[in-house]
Amino acid sequence: MAVFLTVALMTMACPLLAFDMGQSTRCVAIPHKMHVCKDVGYSEMRLPNFLGHSSLEGEVVPHSEDWRPLLQTGCHPQAQAFLCSLIAPVCLDTFIQPCRSLCVAVRESCAPVLACQGHPWPDVLDCDRFPAEEDMCLSHHGKPGIFSKGLPKSACQNCPYVEEAPESKTILDSFCRHDFAVTAKLHRLRLPTGEPEFEIEGRVEFIRQGPLLPYDTQHLLQQWLLINVRCARALVRPGRSQLYVLTGSVQHDGTLSLTRVFPWHRKDANIAVAFRKWKHHRC
Asked: Which residue ranges form the domains of the chain, and what is each CATH number?
């Protein structure tokens, strides 16, 4: 992700400032392989776009892919609409930019994710450059969805402590000290681009459920891997799957924090012992 975003931020350094609202544009169909703006709600876009890209195959499509890792983190529910309004602006009788309020909302949620990867919010997306709400622009919908309200969420954090071959007492103490404990198999593969991808393989099994929800936990951990990609790289080698015991807590602001990680190898009998003892263990 770091390589992709570096390229994306460099290529986005200046074009928006130079975009001329009076220049001649044309309408083209959004190509099917432009996955970032798939199902965005319209089928035609303007060229050149608001980033100054005039070549669909040479600029728009490849540069749109630069933003896919950020969008996959789910950093804001309208991040796709915001970015696609610049990458693939809707083809109407007038130019529709994102409103300043939408930019601010997306920046507040997504800038910490960029910072987690070592990147600042790009100058070209300075929210003061976008029109105010009273102008014709793509607005921000402020109300959270009913299903996301109050759910734990993933965030950038310091990498959790990884302990190899722990004693069963250490594992039981970790179960007691933290809000939740789960087992999950983390998988890392390499895409054709060379950028690693992380995923939760199979089901997440609860040891101690705490505030986590069964239908949300796998997605929650997946988002944690995508946001904390440097931690994920340290945990899992390319092309490998590894089973882990993960313990952590949900903070007062609703963010999930992984605290202790125990790789579960076949030879680690102590983890199996801790599992059996936990059923009757008193903290």
From this structure: 2-138 (1.10.2000.10), 153-278 (2.40.50)
